[in-house]
Amino acid sequence: MTTTAAVPQGDLALLESAVAQELLHKDIPARLAYTASDGTPRVLPINHWWTGSELVMATFTGAAKVRALRRHPAVAITIDTADAPPHVLLLRGDAVVTDADGIVGEYELMMRRGMPADDADTYFDQLRADGARMHRIAVRPTWVGVLDFETRFPGAAPPAISGGA
Fold first, then answer.
1. Is residue 153 helix, strand or coil?
2. Contact predicate 100/135, CB 8 Å
3. Which of 9, 104, 138, 146 has its C-alpha lying 20 to 30 A from 123's C-alpha?
4. Alpha carbon distances (Å) from 109 to 17, 115, 136
5. pLDDT tens digit string along 98-157?
6. Which pTM was predicted?
7. Pairwise CA distance, residues 45 & 63, whole Å
8. Buried b / exposed e across 123-153, counting CB within 10 Å, b at 16+?
9. Average pLDDT over every residue of 52-65
10. How far apart are CA 106 and CA 130, in angstroms?
11. Using CA atoms, how far apart are residues 145 and 9, in angstroms rounded to an integer?
């Protein structure tokens, strides 16, 4: 991990920060914000897997978000904790949706991360038996923000909190 206290918000080097790495690999949902097909904003919790260069999410065929993401690929993603001090990772980029013949590999990795092995085996055996088909949603970040509320604060934080003048 690199020291990123002086790295400006938006810089991809923030992906190497301890906070970003913690959140990218934590078994908590991301929140994906996108523009729906009707032009209105949407945000939804979704499991994720970090490959080292892409944040990968997955969904089953028929999901409305697939059509919307193909039409409007620009997305914003937040992964954050509720504990004090909160840690927040903010990402922006374009979603690339690809069809998978079966289960998306990263989907299996992300789901197994939070399931007992026997339960995961049963779940994936059933999905395969049912002929599940999925879409892989990959976002390569083009903008990164990190807030740890210890060394990095929102830009609008009052001086008494952020230490600014």
1. coil
2. yes
3. 138
4. 23, 10, 13
5. 999 999 999 999 999 989 999 999 999 999 999 999 999 999 999 999 998 777 676 655
6. 0.88
7. 14
8. ebeebeeeebebbbbbbebeebbbbbbeebb
9. 96
10. 19
11. 5
